[in-house]
Amino acid sequence: MRSHRLEKAIEKLKANGVRITPQRYAILAYLIESMSHPTADEIYKALERQFPNLSVATVYNNLRLFKEAGLVRELTYGDNSSRFDANMSDHYHVICTSCGKIVDFAYPPLTEVELVAEKVTGFRVKSHRMEVYGLCRECQDVTH
């Protein structure tokens, strides 16, 4: 059974004239169901058995399409590999400095930071991003 978020995403793509291929559907479903903020390579590896003709380029092209449609956001952090997040709500991320795991956490948007930045600098601020770093539970267990 499809999730509500997946249904909404499929409807949005169809409304934009995008054909829903089995590969496209699988990539989108994986992104929505996965809470791991996967890289394109991780998505490819997860789906390659199911789709032997799938290529990393196909995954990248579809991720770009989903990003342009406003269904996913691209996260770029210190390791230079883009990760993709299908959770488009306002939220922040905590990142493990040991294994790179990324976990969502909800916190009221810090919009006053944007207002102060505009006032102090004269910039027209479009957005901000906050990242919190630490050790995940698994990495804490390894170090103790």
Report on this model:
This protein is α+β, with helices and mostly antiparallel strands and 144 residues long. It has two domains: 82 residues, Winged helix-like DNA-binding domain superfamily/Winged helix DNA-binding domain (Arc Repressor Mutant, subunit A), CATH 1.10.10.10; 52 residues, Dna Ligase, domain 1, CATH 3.30.1490. It is 44% helix and 15% strand. A three-stranded mixed sheet has the order 4-3-5, with no helix packed on it. The model has no long low-confidence stretch (mean pLDDT 90).
CATH topology of the largest domain: Arc Repressor Mutant, subunit A
Q: End-to-end span in angstroms? A: 42 Å
N-to-C SSE series?
A: HHHHEEEEHEH
CATH 2nd-level architecture of the largest domain: Orthogonal Bundle
For the residues shown, what is the average pLDDT? Answer: 90
Uncertain residue segments: none
Rg, rounded, reads 17 Å
Structural class label: alpha+beta
Number of helices: 6
Strand content: 5-15%
Give the CATH superfamily of the largest domain. Answer: Winged helix-like DNA-binding domain superfamily/Winged helix DNA-binding domain
The helical percent reads 40-55%
Structural shape: globular
Got a strand count? 5
Strand order of the largest sheet: 4-3-5
CATH class annotation of the largest domain: Mainly Alpha
Largest sheet: 3 strands, mixed
**Count of folded domains:** 2
